[in-house]
Design brief:
With 187 residues, the protein is of the alpha/beta class. The protein has one domain: Rossmann fold (3-Layer(aba) Sandwich). Helix content is 37%, strand content 20%. The protein contains six helices and six strands. Helix 2 packs parallel to helix 6 and helix 4 runs parallel beside helix 5. The longest helix has 17 residues. This is Hydrolase. Keywords: Hydrolase.
């Protein structure tokens, strides 16, 4: 479904744009994803809307066939990239699973603010972004995904999420389309 509207109380959720994650090789340049996400964060702040910055620092305890062994991580691995220009008004979530809603208090925080819609961006499209979008949808939020502000380590997984999964969870659009919708509400 193409992007149609943004609710009056929409929040931006930025997934895992942190130093350790953006250093991985990705299907689309991470620098461009960071640039687009930063533009969205600036626009949301300018319009007085909530910005949620999410990082990951750990992993779920369950077994998997394809366990990821990260080894010893640099001290700044979980630090958000400076381009996001984190502000005191931003809500920060540190997650230990794929999705930003799992055991973090994010849902309660957004509901307390009266948020009814979320715009989600970040890395990885098929893991952190998709998990967060699924939970947002299941929690009753209208979901928008800025497809030019996300990437994955696997181009097939990225494509699958954008073309097959996201249209079932909400609306997709570009960073500029979202900014234009925000700006048109104030005009």
């Amino acid at each position: 479904m193409a992007l149609t509207t943004l609710d009056p109380q929409t929040a931006l959720i930025v997934i895992d744009l942190q130093k350790g994650i953006v250093a991985y090789p990705t299907a689309h340049p991470a620098a461009e994803v960071v640039k687009q996400a930063s533009a969205l964060a600036d626009a949301f702040r300018r319009h007085g809307l909530p910005v949620v910055l999410v990082n990951v620092n750990g992993g779920a305890p369950g077994r998997a066939e394809q366990a990821r062994k990260l080894g010893e991580l640099p001290a700044d691995w979980a630090e958000l990239v400076p381009e996001l220009d984190q502000q005191p008004t931003d809500y920060t979530v540190t997650k230990r699973t794929w999705g930003a809603f799992t055991h973090t208090g994010l849902d309660e925080h957004l509901k307390k603010l009266g948020v009814t819609q979320v715009v989600i961006v970040g890395v990885s499209t098929s893991i952190g972004v998709e998990s967060t979008a699924r939970h947002a949808y299941e929690n009753g939020y209208n979901v928008t995904l800025a497809v030019d502000a996300m990437t994955d380590t696997n181009s097939d997984a990225h494509h699958n999420s954008i073309t097959r999964i996201f249209p079932r969870l909400g609306e997709t659009g570009t960073t500029q389309q979202i900014i234009d919708l925000l700006d048109s509400r104030s005009a």
